[in-house]
Amino acid sequence: GEFERRLAADPDDHAARIDLAVALNAMGERAKATDALMEAIRRDKAWNEEAARKQLLKFFEAWGFDDPATLAGRRKLSTLLFR
Questions:
Q1: Which helix (H) or strand (E) holds 21?
Q2: Of 25, 29, 30, 63, which sits most exposed with the smallest number of CB within 10 A?
Q3: Helix, strand, or coil here: 3?
Q4: pLDDT digit string (tens) for 13-48?
């Protein structure tokens, strides 16, 4: 709830969005965690030395490169970065 409140007050609070993604991942919500980070990347890719992208890559490594969440997330990331 805290992260959602922070984002409602400031949709560009990228730290809150990354914290939300970490919490979602801890709850097993991989797709939602990916989506939260993708939104941070979409809003400001370079914020804090690309912190959102780096966190997403950490998730991919932890989940395994053949995991369905990793495969779907990598496709989304590629589409976002190279469109």
A1: helix 14-26
A2: 29
A3: helix
A4: 999 999 999 999 999 999 999 999 999 999 999 999
